[in-house]
Amino acid sequence: MTQHALLEDDLAPFGEAYGPGLMNNFAPLRAEFGPARLKLLSGKVPANLNGVYLRSGPNIRFEPSGRYHPFDGDGMIHAAHFENGVVTYRNRWVRTDAWKLEDEAGRSLHAGVRETRKGRSDKPLKDTANTDLVAHAGRVLALWYLSGDAYEIDPVTLETKGKCPGIVASGGAISAHAKVDEITDDLIFFDYGTEAPYMHYGVVGPDRKLKHFVPIELPGPRLPHDMAITEHYSILHDLPMLYDAEAFALGRHKVTFDPSLPARLGVIPRYGASDSIRWFEFSPCFIYHVVNAWEEGDWVVMSGCRYMPVLDKDGEIDAVRTARDVAELVMHARLWVWRMNVKTGETHEEMLDASRNVEFPTFNSRLSGRRTRFGYLVDHSDTRTLQWYGIRKYDLDTGESLGSWSDSSAHSFYSEPWFAAADNFAAEDDGYVVAFQWNEKLKRETLDIFDAKAIENGPVAQLEVPFRVPSGFHACWMAADRMAK
After folding, report:
1. Rg of the chain's alpha carbons, rounded to an integer?
2. Which of 183, 242, 213, 219 has the alpha carbon at shortest distance from 369?
């Protein structure tokens, strides 16, 4: 039920029996809230910032039926709508098919990723739509990391409007990290699964209809997480993160890392046929998230966060510990760049910053697939799961840190920050970085707004959110002119 105020029971956790994934800053909200105008604590909301910042994440509704993992939580969207200096907050669950079934039953009906996959024959794991949000054609798509439905969300009311017709036409599956070319308004996506050919690739147009869809043959089932686009190409990932075959046969969702396999990046023309993809090999790794990609003559360049494999005492990759870290969201990532020459076949890869554990990147998405100099990433804790304690701006050419901000490396939990271009922006970094922040020590949730040209100066405005926004996954920004579409 929608409420304008949360009661104490609505904030109560399920209890310690389910472990840290449902405790402290990860404890879910038990009700919906808003719309409500946020109170300004300091600074001034920029007048040239109009649109909506939305962040998704797991927010389990009913007591879990087994061991809990953050991937299991029902998708909830937290949104801050900016309009003429006024910021309005609301949250809503995504009304997925599974959410509706459990709402009718009044209890959890699905086992999580730590349990058997045999709970249901049609969809053994619940499609929670809790992973990423992608702004496209005037709506926002709520997506799931294991390839599920694309639920269309009204960016202001957060009402679930249905499923994207273009994805339904493709067969109904899309991975979480689809990309939108904000110049053409094409939605470029992939899906993956456990049956040959193991991946498909497609394009949905600005009319939300399917324009292109082809199979992509992989050597076997894989667990790719992200992709990238340039003006003319898409980059698909075939990484050495696999299903554990023995566990899979027993109905368990378990991953393994095979360091004998290279990381392969496949470059395919945006509307290319299956056989037009060209694969380039790099050092074995896993890649959770890409910053951006672009073309430089015959070179296709992709910047992103390379998940650093765990090394044993001899300096060799420890496959077991690497797979476990990925599965448990223990992140040790470095800013990286991969280069592929589509004419000669040459490759080059380089670590841009060896010293900082950074992830969950964003950039000026108005320039998706075009050369960008700046990236905005979170400083990731080396010891606490999903603790993003600061925000950092990078030069993507040199790897130089251009400024950072943190209230407290011990107590701050930022949501994924998103770059929001200023209305009528004139330069790439002419805009703001927006993020929710939970301060564990102060027991205070704020919405922080930074000048993207001077992150190190701290928020230009900070607004009070009247309760904790549980730690989650990904965010997006939809500018007012794109909302009007």
Report:
1. 21
2. 183
**Residue 132 burial (C-beta neighbours within 10 Å; 0-12, 13-18, 19+):** buried
Beta strand pairing call for 2-3 and 32-37: parallel
**Integer angstrom CA distances of residue 155 from 55, 79, 144, 478:** 11, 8, 18, 8
Q: Where are the alpha helices (DSSP H) in 294-446?
A: 319-327
∠ at Cα 357 (467, 364), nearest 5°? 70
Percent of the chain with pLDDT over 90: 81
Sign of CA dihedral 462, 424, 56, 395: negative
Distances (CA, A) of 367 to 179, 182, 201: 12, 7, 22
Distance CA 79, CA 93 (A): 12
pLDDT of residue 254: 83
CB contact set of 105 (below 8 Å; sequence gap of 6+): none
CA 470 vs CA 39, 41, 77, 352, 437: distances in Å = 19, 21, 11, 32, 10
Neighbours of 326 (CB within 10 A): 21
Secondary-structure percent of the chain, ordered helix, strand, coil, rounded to 5: 15, 40, 45
Neighbour count for residue 448 (Cβ, 10 Å): 26
Ramachandran class of 217: left when φ > 0, alpha when ψ lies in -120 to 50, beta otherwise: beta
Structure pTM? 0.94
Q: How far apart (Å, rounded) are the C-alpha atoms in residues 136 and 204?
A: 10
What is the Cα–Cα distance from 461 to 458, expressed in whole angstroms? 9
CA distances from 364 to 162, 374, 376, 395, 476 (A): 28, 8, 9, 13, 11
Judging by beta carbons within 10 Å of its beta carbon (0-12, 13-18, 19+), is residue 194 exposed, middle or buried? Answer: exposed
DSSP one-letter string for 193-245: -SSTTEEEEEEE-TTS-EEEEEEEE-SS-------EE-SSEEEEEE-SEEE-H
- Percent of the chain having pLDDT more than 70? 94
| Among candidate residues 194, 320, 304, 177, the one with its CA nearest the CA of residue 257 | 320
Q: Is residue 332 within 8 Å of 311, Cβ to Cβ?
A: no
- Per residue in 9-37, pLDDT (tens digit) is 666 666 666 777 788 888 999 999 999 99
- Report d(CA 145, CA 326) in Å as an integer: 14
DSSP class of 255: E
Distance CA 19, CA 70 (A): 11
Residue type, 429: D
Respond yes or no on whether the N-terminal peptide bond of residue 197 is cis (omega within 30° of 0).
Answer: yes
The per-residue pLDDT for range 252-294, each reduced to its tens digit, is 778 899 999 999 999 999 999 999 999 999 999 999 999 999 9
Cis before 35? omega within 30: yes
